Amino acid sequence: MIPRIVSSKTGLRGPAVIATILALAGTAHAGPDGAEIYRDLCASCHGEARLGGIGPALIPESLTRLRGENLDDIVAHGRPATQMPGFAGTLGSADITAVAAYLRTPLPGIPTWDAAEIEATRALSPEYTPAAAPVFKGDPMNITLVVETGDHHVSVLDGDTFEVLDRFATPFAVHGGPKFSPDGRYVFVMSRDGWVQKYDIWSLQEVGRVRAGINSRNIAMSADGKWLAVANYLPHSVTILSADDLSVAHVRRVIDADGRESRVSAVYQAPQRESFILALKDSPEIWEIGTTPDAGPFHDGFVHSHEKDMKEALGAEQGLFARRRIKVAEPLDDFFFTPDYRHLIGASRSGDKGVVVNLDVGREIADLPLPGMPHLGSGISWTSQGREVMATPHLKEGRLSVIDTSDWSVVKTIETMGPGFFLRSHENSPYVWADVFFGPHRDKMHVIDKNTLEIVRTLDPAPGKTVAHIEFTRDGRHALVSIWEDDGAVIVYDARTLEEVRRLPMRKPSGKYNVWNKITFSDGTSH
Question: Which domain holds residue 95?
Answer without folding.
Answer: 34-104
